[in-house]
Write a structure and sequence with these properties.
By secondary structure, the protein is an alpha/beta fold. The protein folds into two domains: 2-156, NAD(P)-binding Rossmann-like Domain (Rossmann fold, 3-Layer(aba) Sandwich); 164-199 and 232-284 and 303-338, no CATH class. Helix content is 32%, strand content 17%. It contains ten helices and 15 strands. The protein has helices spanning 12-22, 77-87, 128-147, 168-177, 204-217, 234-245, 257-262, 291-295, 303-316, 329-338, and strands spanning 2-6, 26-31, 44-47, 66-71, 91-97, 151-156, 159-160, 188-192, 198-199, 202-203, 221-225, 232-233, 251-255, 267-268, 271-272. The strands form five sheets. The protein has a seven-stranded parallel β-sheet with strand order 3-2-1-4-5-6-11, with helices on both faces. The chain has a two-stranded parallel ribbon with strand order 7-10. Strand 4, helix 2 and strand 5 form a beta-alpha-beta unit. The longest helix has 20 residues, at 128-147. The protein is globular. It starts with a strand and ends in a 17-residue tail after the last helix.
Length: 355
Amino acid sequence: MKLLVLGGTRFLGRHVVDAALGRGDQVTLFTRGQAPNHWGDAVKALIGNRDPTVAPGLAALADGRWDAVIDTCGYVPRVVRASARLLEPRVGRYLFVSSISVFTDASCPGLDESAPVGALADPASEEVGKHYGPLKAACEVAVSEIYGTRALNIRPGLIVGPHDPTDRFGYWVARFVHPHLLGARGGTAVVPAPPSRPIQLIDARDLATFMLDLIASGASGTYNATSSARQWSFADLVAALVAAGGTNAPRLAWVDEATLVEHKVTPWAGLPLWIPSSFAEAAGFMEIDCTKAQRDGLRTRVLAATIADTAAWLAQRANANTWNDVLTSETEFAILAAAPERPPQQRPKSSERAR
Ligand SMILES: NC(=O)c1ccc[n+]([C@@H]2O[C@H](COP(=O)([O-])OP(=O)(O)OC[C@H]3O[C@@H](n4cnc5c(N)ncnc54)[C@H](OP(=O)(O)O)[C@@H]3O)[C@@H](O)[C@H]2O)c1
């Protein structure tokens, strides 16, 4: 296939390009040229700005035909509409990377692709930090309006794996496999009780493979794309982290929600992946219905594989100025002092399923 990737050089897009080249696809990148081209002459690299109001805009995309566009870096409907419209006569399909953040009400588990999505109070708003979900939803609408049955809108959950700039999953890998990367940490790690709390995530490489497979099969429409609801719990994640950490792995202190809240641990950021019950409006984000994606080919590798590869990447990355939002070692020590270590919880046997 001939593919045009709008973006492609940071995290998810980088894995898309790796996977596409691995399958023998021809890849063109369109970026501002700020992040490096990791593939040299193996890709065609076009430079511009996807915002048509910022010179040189989309001029580099004036010519060329592709089987599909993969848009990994669209956040604002005006901007997404510009590339979608410009390319429509010359491309087969347009795949837009959206997010499960589109949902209006994520308080309940089991949201499927038909669940209501957020609307912008002010349709002209472009404040991505404030209206990320509704803006993504509006981008989906723009792509669907222009491409009809040639549109694919993919809604990932938490994307993890090597090159993840958000360092959320990376915190857990560092805490258990490379604790020195987090500064002076003790031999016991705070983990949020209960161990049965469900988690959902998707390895960027599995997501990339799924997206390319959908394009190749001529699929269209909208897909939630993360691991199956209740496939994994925090206990499964922690068991895989302990196994990966080996002799480096800290002992576990499963700490109840009240203690974490009392120590002002920020949901999701302070302890990544932790959504406490006090954050009820987001409870469903870890139990999204991905039946459609699983049916149409989404497969998830085992947690151990994602952890091992993320650990290998962290070991060679420059880790200065990272993990600024996670709980500090001082807070971790204070929590441990307030919540004395309990005997280790029962570890899951083999509940980590490969799909
Ligand atoms: N992380 C998660 O857990 C998560 C969850 C759900 C959905 N998502 C979505 O997944 C996607 C992940 O993105 P990624 O950063 O990993 O993608 P990526 O394609 O690997 O990196 C972003 C690319 O966009 C390019 N870019 C940025 N601004 C540009 C502009 N104005 N014009 C042209 N190119 C531009 C960057 O290169 P230059 O800087 O050189 O321009 C870079 O190549 C996002 O759409 C995000 O909303 C993420």
